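job 3f2a | input accepted
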Amino acid sequence: MDTLTTTAHDPLIPPPRAQRSRTLADLRWFLAALRRARLVRRRLALPLPGTIAALAALAPTHPPSPAVAWVAALRASGRARQVAGGPDTCLVRALIAGSLLAARGDVRLHLGFRPGQAGSPADGHAWLDGADFELGRDGTQGSAYSPALTVPFPAPWSHP
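job 3f2a | predicted structure (160 res):
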Protein backbone atom coordinates (compact mmCIF):
# COMPACT_ATOMS: atom_id res chain seq x y z
CA MET A 1 0.00 0.00 0.00
CA ASP A 2 1.17 3.53 -0.66
CA THR A 3 3.12 5.28 2.02
CA LEU A 4 1.12 8.40 2.76
CA THR A 5 1.67 11.28 5.10
CA THR A 6 -1.11 13.14 6.80
CA THR A 7 -1.36 16.86 6.20
CA ALA A 8 -3.79 19.23 7.83
CA HIS A 9 -4.83 20.75 4.50
CA ASP A 10 -5.62 17.56 2.55
CA PRO A 11 -8.65 15.55 3.77
CA LEU A 12 -8.17 13.00 0.96
CA ILE A 13 -5.04 11.52 2.50
CA PRO A 14 -5.95 8.87 5.05
CA PRO A 15 -4.62 9.38 8.56
CA PRO A 16 -2.05 7.02 10.08
CA ARG A 17 -3.44 3.66 11.23
CA ALA A 18 -3.56 4.70 14.91
CA GLN A 19 -5.70 7.76 14.11
CA ARG A 20 -8.22 6.10 11.77
CA SER A 21 -11.79 5.94 12.93
CA ARG A 22 -13.38 2.51 12.83
CA THR A 23 -17.04 3.34 12.56
CA LEU A 24 -19.69 1.10 11.07
CA ALA A 25 -19.91 3.44 8.07
CA ASP A 26 -16.15 3.13 7.47
CA LEU A 27 -16.47 -0.64 7.55
CA ARG A 28 -19.45 -0.55 5.18
CA TRP A 29 -17.60 1.52 2.59
CA PHE A 30 -14.43 -0.54 2.95
CA LEU A 31 -16.36 -3.79 2.32
CA ALA A 32 -18.16 -2.22 -0.66
CA ALA A 33 -14.79 -1.10 -2.06
CA LEU A 34 -13.27 -4.54 -1.44
CA ARG A 35 -16.08 -6.15 -3.47
CA ARG A 36 -15.34 -3.77 -6.32
CA ALA A 37 -11.59 -4.45 -6.04
CA ARG A 38 -12.27 -8.12 -6.73
CA LEU A 39 -14.34 -7.23 -9.78
CA VAL A 40 -11.69 -4.82 -11.09
CA ARG A 41 -8.96 -7.46 -10.77
CA ARG A 42 -11.05 -10.00 -12.72
CA ARG A 43 -11.80 -7.50 -15.50
CA LEU A 44 -8.47 -5.68 -15.96
CA ALA A 45 -7.71 -7.50 -19.23
CA LEU A 46 -11.11 -6.54 -20.70
CA PRO A 47 -11.96 -3.26 -22.47
CA LEU A 48 -12.22 -0.32 -20.07
CA PRO A 49 -15.75 0.87 -21.05
CA GLY A 50 -17.22 -2.56 -20.22
CA THR A 51 -15.43 -2.63 -16.88
CA ILE A 52 -16.70 0.86 -16.03
CA ALA A 53 -20.26 -0.09 -16.99
CA ALA A 54 -20.12 -3.21 -14.78
CA LEU A 55 -18.78 -1.18 -11.86
CA ALA A 56 -21.29 1.65 -12.32
CA ALA A 57 -24.12 -0.90 -12.14
CA LEU A 58 -22.97 -1.62 -8.55
CA ALA A 59 -23.11 2.04 -7.51
CA PRO A 60 -24.82 2.63 -4.16
CA THR A 61 -27.99 4.75 -4.30
CA HIS A 62 -26.56 7.08 -1.65
CA PRO A 63 -22.86 7.46 -2.46
CA PRO A 64 -20.32 8.44 0.19
CA SER A 65 -18.42 11.71 0.07
CA PRO A 66 -15.49 11.74 -2.38
CA ALA A 67 -13.00 11.72 0.52
CA VAL A 68 -14.61 8.66 2.13
CA ALA A 69 -14.76 6.84 -1.23
CA TRP A 70 -11.09 7.58 -1.90
CA VAL A 71 -9.93 6.33 1.50
CA ALA A 72 -12.05 3.17 1.11
CA ALA A 73 -10.57 2.59 -2.37
CA LEU A 74 -7.00 3.01 -1.08
CA ARG A 75 -7.59 0.58 1.77
CA ALA A 76 -9.44 -2.01 -0.35
CA SER A 77 -6.93 -1.97 -3.19
CA GLY A 78 -4.02 -2.39 -0.78
CA ARG A 79 -5.78 -5.15 1.17
CA ALA A 80 -6.76 -7.02 -2.01
CA ARG A 81 -3.15 -6.92 -3.15
CA GLN A 82 -1.95 -8.30 0.19
CA VAL A 83 -4.48 -11.15 0.10
CA ALA A 84 -4.68 -12.07 -3.58
CA GLY A 85 -1.74 -10.37 -5.23
CA GLY A 86 -2.10 -8.35 -8.39
CA PRO A 87 -1.76 -4.65 -9.02
CA ASP A 88 -2.43 -1.84 -6.57
CA THR A 89 -2.23 0.94 -9.14
CA CYS A 90 -3.77 4.34 -9.68
CA LEU A 91 -6.12 2.80 -12.27
CA VAL A 92 -7.40 0.16 -9.84
CA ARG A 93 -7.94 2.76 -7.08
CA ALA A 94 -9.68 5.18 -9.47
CA LEU A 95 -12.01 2.45 -10.78
CA ILE A 96 -12.97 1.41 -7.24
CA ALA A 97 -13.61 4.96 -6.04
CA GLY A 98 -15.44 5.83 -9.25
CA SER A 99 -17.80 2.92 -8.80
CA LEU A 100 -18.66 4.10 -5.28
CA LEU A 101 -19.35 7.62 -6.57
CA ALA A 102 -21.07 6.78 -9.89
CA ALA A 103 -24.56 7.54 -8.56
CA ARG A 104 -23.55 11.22 -8.35
CA GLY A 105 -23.78 11.26 -12.16
CA ASP A 106 -20.78 13.55 -12.66
CA VAL A 107 -17.81 11.19 -12.22
CA ARG A 108 -15.16 10.94 -14.94
CA LEU A 109 -12.07 8.72 -15.18
CA HIS A 110 -9.06 10.39 -16.79
CA LEU A 111 -6.03 8.61 -18.21
CA GLY A 112 -2.95 10.72 -18.83
CA PHE A 113 0.56 10.12 -20.06
CA ARG A 114 3.93 11.85 -19.92
CA PRO A 115 7.20 11.15 -21.73
CA GLY A 116 9.64 8.82 -20.04
CA GLN A 117 12.81 10.07 -18.38
CA ALA A 118 16.23 9.37 -19.97
CA GLY A 119 15.18 6.67 -22.44
CA SER A 120 12.56 5.03 -20.24
CA PRO A 121 9.11 4.34 -21.71
CA ALA A 122 6.16 6.69 -21.33
CA ASP A 123 4.50 6.82 -17.94
CA GLY A 124 0.72 6.76 -17.33
CA HIS A 125 -1.58 7.89 -14.53
CA ALA A 126 -5.32 7.60 -13.78
CA TRP A 127 -7.46 9.97 -11.72
CA LEU A 128 -11.10 10.92 -11.14
CA ASP A 129 -12.95 14.18 -11.11
CA GLY A 130 -16.47 15.47 -10.73
CA ALA A 131 -18.27 18.77 -10.40
CA ASP A 132 -16.78 19.50 -6.97
CA PHE A 133 -13.85 17.11 -6.49
CA GLU A 134 -10.67 15.69 -7.99
CA LEU A 135 -9.20 12.44 -6.66
CA GLY A 136 -5.80 10.90 -7.36
CA ARG A 137 -4.31 13.76 -9.35
CA ASP A 138 -1.58 14.12 -6.70
CA GLY A 139 -0.87 17.81 -7.11
CA THR A 140 2.28 18.55 -9.07
CA GLN A 141 2.87 14.90 -9.99
CA GLY A 142 -0.55 14.62 -11.61
CA SER A 143 -0.25 17.93 -13.45
CA ALA A 144 2.76 16.54 -15.34
CA TYR A 145 0.47 14.11 -17.18
CA SER A 146 -1.26 15.15 -20.39
CA PRO A 147 -4.86 13.88 -20.42
CA ALA A 148 -5.30 11.40 -23.26
CA LEU A 149 -8.66 9.77 -22.51
CA THR A 150 -11.69 10.68 -20.42
CA VAL A 151 -14.37 8.09 -19.71
CA PRO A 152 -17.51 9.06 -17.75
CA PHE A 153 -18.96 6.69 -15.18
CA PRO A 154 -22.59 6.26 -16.23
CA ALA A 155 -25.21 6.72 -13.55
CA PRO A 156 -26.48 3.30 -12.43
CA TRP A 157 -30.05 4.03 -13.49
CA SER A 158 -28.90 4.42 -17.12
CA HIS A 159 -28.25 0.65 -17.33
CA PRO A 160 -30.89 -1.94 -18.26
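job 3f2a | Strands lie at 108-114, 123-129, 134-135, 146-152.
job 3f2a | closed
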